[in-house]
Amino acid sequence: MMTRELEAVPLSPALGAAIYGLDLTRPLEEEDRVFLRKAWAEHLVLVIHNDAPLPAEVHMDFCRIFGEIGARARPTQARHEPEGAPQNVMYVSNKRENGRIIGSIPDGEMEFHIDQSYMEVPAKAGCLHGLELPAEGGDTIFGNLCLAYEALPDDLRRAIEGRRAVTSYGHGGYGIQTRNANDHSTATRRASHPIVCTHPDNGRRLLYVNRLMTERIEGLPDDESEDLLFRLFAHQEQAEFLYVHKWRRYDLLLWDNRACIHARTDFDPAQTRHLRRFSIRGHALT
Ligand code: SIN
Q1: Would you say residue 29 lies in a domain?
Q2: Number of structural domains, the chain?
Q3: Which of 2, 88, 135, 270 is the most buried (most CB within 10 A)?
Q4: Is 191 domain-assigned?
Q5: What is the pTM of this model?
Q6: Is residue 222 situated within a structural domain?
Q7: What ligand 1 atom has the least distance to the C-alpha of 275?
Q8: How far is the CA of 198 from the centre of ligand 1 (A)?
Q9: Residue 65 belongs to what domain range?
Q10: pLDDT at residue 75 above 60?
Q11: What is the pLDDT of residues 155-195, one digit of tens each?
């Protein structure tokens, strides 16, 4: 029997691939799953364009190819969720039902971050499905932390050798999400991770800091920590390590949340941006 040919087409020199030939409305063969796991390990971000919205069950089954669906991180302010929403779902949404926003992180720009990096065990992966999108903006930008580590200048590499950083998130959840707006001082959720972690699947080293949530480097005076962090952020956010995803309606996008930072560009809050997200359970980073 003829099988469909799956194809992974790179989206940028740094990371990301679009998968062609996959029909998620039909049951997948084991060889499809093997192909997807291999493509994900190689490209860190996978994008599948779809012609129609995927039911939550199909979205979840896709996530299960890569691991176990994890609990969603509770947003700082409880959100109203749509009726019948599946357990562990998170809507990244500015959509309103009865005047109330039904999702989390609804509006505005978000600086580079790693989901749940303020937890001891952050998610291994995130998977977003774009259901309603603004005409312009609201792009999601991904950065490859393995490449960023490998390209570190010697002085920066020496400065972070063996060091750990504290990550926290105390943002209320509305509006622009920047380091300045993130209330590190009162954040209740805080974790310490090595700045240089080893990717559990391939042994590559990665630069595990992010502008929005990394609060300080342990064992350094505040001004030195801040100076070093800003040099690391500027380094890892260089265009050569990035892929900018311009959403098409019904895209399904999976990213490696250990090896990627991601950010969101601004968009018109009068336009609806509504995405369904699941996270895949991770392991502590070492
Ligand atoms: C997220 O950080 O999971 C949201 C990204 C986005 O809204 O594009």
Answers
A1: yes
A2: 1
A3: 88
A4: no
A5: 0.94
A6: no
A7: 7
A8: 24
A9: 7-106+121-131+247-260+271-280
A10: no
A11: 999 999 999 999 998 876 667 788 888 888 877 789 999 99
